[in-house]
Design a protein that fits this description.
Elements: E1 14-18, H1 23-33, E2 37-42, E3 57-58, E4 61-62, H2 63-68, E5 73-77, H3 82-92, E6 97-100, H4 106-109, H5 114-120, E7 125-130, H6 145-151, H7 154-157, H8 173-196, E8 200-205, H9 206-212, H10 215-224, E9 241-245, E10 250-254, H11 258-268, H12 282-287, H13 289-300, H14 305-314, E11 319-321, H15 325-330, H16 332-336, E12 340-345, E13 349-354, H17 378-384, H18 389-397, E14 401-402
Helix pairs in contact: 1-8, 6-9, 8-9
Pfam families: CoA_transf_3
Keywords: Transferase
GO molecular function, one term: CoA-transferase activity
C-alpha cells in the first residue's frame, strides 16, 4: 500500500524504519496506523531479529514479528555495501522521518549518522531509540527492557510486597513506552518541520521510558526522601484501590475518593465501616491499608465476580473483572473500539492483530495491512525510488537487495 492509498492524519508522510525487535518498530507501527507510509529496511540475512522470536509461528512466520510490523512495507538491504547505502539515500530523498534503534555508534560506522544525513537531508526528522539515550555515562551500553525496568525503579515498585523477590511488569513496558514516546517526539518534530522546514534529531530511551512510568512513586520519594516499595495491586496514594478475590475469581475496585468509598460501603452493606476512625478519610485508609483490605475481603468472597460487578455498577462504584488476554480480546468493548482487527497475510492468511488505540474524527487511522515478508516489497520500493528493472535485477543478483515472494 503506497502513500496515496493510506488514510489517517499522517497520510502523505514517509517514514524509513531502520529498527528491530520492539521499541523502534512500536514507533513505526504507531505512525503507520495513523497514515504514514512506513518502509521497513531489514538486513539481508534473517531480517529483524524478531522473525526468530518463536514459538509461536504461523505458517513459518513469527507471530511476534507480525504483530510489531503490521501495516509496513519491507525491503531487505545490505547497508554495509556502498550500493546498499546508495539505495537508502534514494529512499531518504523524499522521506520525512528516519527511525533507528541500533546500538550506539552503529549508524556512524555505516556513514549514516545524524551529523552526516542532516547535511544531505536538512528536513529529515531522525529518531534515535536506545537503551540509555545518546548522552550520559551509559550511552554506549546495550539496553534491554529487563535491564531498564530494573534501573528505572520499576522493579522496586512491582510485586506482591516487601521481602518478595523483585518482579518485572508482565509486558516489556519500557520497550513499548519508549516507542510511544518516540512517536510523540517525531510528531512534535514534524510540526516544527512544517513550520520551518528544519529537521532535527529525536532522542529517547528505554531507561527514560521506565522513569516516566514512576510518576506517582517518584512524587512520593521526592517529597518524603523515602523510596516506595511494591504494593501488589494496591495504589500508593488512594484506598481502596486494588483487586479483591470473589467466590470464583478476582475483580478490581476503584473506590479512590470519598464519594466512591461511601458508595462501596452501601453496595457491601458495610455502612458501619464509615464510622471507623481508621477508615474515615483517604489519609486514614492509607495509614491502615492492610486492615482496610482485611475488613473488605470477606464481603467479596460471598458472591461471584459477575454478581459483584453488577451490584457495583448499579451502585456507581468503578470496578472491573481481571481478564486474561483471550478474555480481553473477546470483550465487547475491545471489539467496539476496534482494538482487534483482521488482516490478510501473504503466508499466514487471515489473521488477527491489535488495532490503533487513538481515534480521530476527521482523519481516522487504521491498520493498513499485514507485516511484510522479508524483502516482500523490495522491487516495488526500488521502482518508486527510480530504479529501472535492469538496475533492480543487478542489485538482487549481487546480493545488495533481497526479494521474497509468497
Amino acid at each position: 500500500m503506497t502513500q496515496a492509498e493510506r488514510s489517517g492524519p499522517l497520510a502523505g508522510v514517509k517514514v524509513v524504519e531502520l529498527a528491530h525487535i520492539m521499541a523502534g518498530p512500536v514507533c513505526g507501527l504507531m505512525l503507520g496506523d495513523m497514515g504514514a507510509e512506513v518502509i521497513k529496511v531489514e538486513k539481508i540475512e534473517g531480517g529483524d531479529d524478531t522473525r526468530r522470536s518463536v514459538p509461536p509461528a504461523i505458517e513459518g512466520e513469527s507471530a511476534a514479528y507480525m504483530m510489531m510490523n503490521r501495516g509496513k512495507r519491507g525491503i531487505a538491504l545490505d547497508l554495509k555495501s556502498a550500493d546498499g547505502k546508495a539505495v537508502l539515500r534514494r529512499l531518504l530523498a523524499d522521506a520525512d522521518v528516519l527511525i533507528e534503534n541500533y546500538r550506539a555508534g552503529t549508524m556512524e560506522r555505516l556513514g549514516l549518522g545524524y551529523d552526516v544525513l542532516r547535511q544531505e537531508f536538512p528536513g529529515l526528522v531522525y529518531c534515535s531509540l536506545s537503551g540509555f539515550g545518546r548522552s550520559g555515562p551509559y550511552a554506549d551500553r546495550a539496553g534491554f527492557d529487563l535491564v531498564a525496568q530494573g534501573m528505572s525503579g520499576l522493579m522496586s515498585i512491582t510485586g506482591e510486597g516487601p521481602g518478595r523477590p523483585p518482579m518485572k511488569c508482565g509486558p516489556p513496558v519500557t520497550d513499548i513506552t519508549a516507542g510511544l514516546l518516540a512517536a510523540m517526539g517525531v510528531l512534535a518534530a514534524h510540526v516544527h518541520k512544517l513550520k520551518t522546514g528544519e529537521g532535527q534529531i529525536v532522542d529517547t530511551s528505554l531507561f527514560e521510558a521506565g522513569i516516566t512510568l514512576t510518576y506517582w512513586q517518584s512524587a512520593i520519594a521526592m517529597a518524603t526522601g523515602v523510596a516506595p516499595g511494591p504494593m501488589g495491586s494496591a495504589h500508593p496514594l488512594n484506598a481502596p484501590y486494588e483487586a479483591f478475590e470473589t467466590k470464583d475469581g478476582w475483580i478490581t475496585i476503584g473506590a479512590a475518593n470519598q464519594t466512591n468509598w461511601l458508595r462501596l460501603l452501601a453496595v457491601l452493606g458495610a455502612e458501619d465501616l464509615a464510622d471507623d476512625p481508621r477508615f474515615s478519610a483517604n489519609r486514614d485508609r492509607m495509614a491502615n491499608r492492610a486492615a482496610l483490605a482485611a475488613a473488605l475481603a470477606p464481603h467479596f468472597r460471598t458472591a461471584s465476580s459477575d454478581d459483584w460487578l453488577a451490584r457495583l455498577e448499579a451502585g456507581g462504584v468503578p470496578a472491573g473483572p481481571v481478564l486474561d488476554v483471550l478474555a480481553m480480546k473477546a470483550d465487547p468493548q475491545t471489539r467496539a473500539r476496534a482494538m482487534v482487527v483482521e488482516v490478510e497475510h501473504a503466508r499466514a492468511g487471515r489473521m488477527e492483530t491489535l488495532g490503533l488505540p487513538v481515534k480521530f474524527s476527521a482523519t481516522p487511522g487504521r491498520v493498513h495491512g499485514p507485516a511484510p515478508l522479508l524483502g516482500e516489497h523490495s522491487r516495488a520500493i526500488l521502482r518508486e525510488a527510480g530504479y529501472d528493472e535492469a538496475a533492480i535485477a543487478d542489485l538482487v543478483a549481487r546480493g545488495v537487495v533481497r526479494e521474497t515472494t509468497a
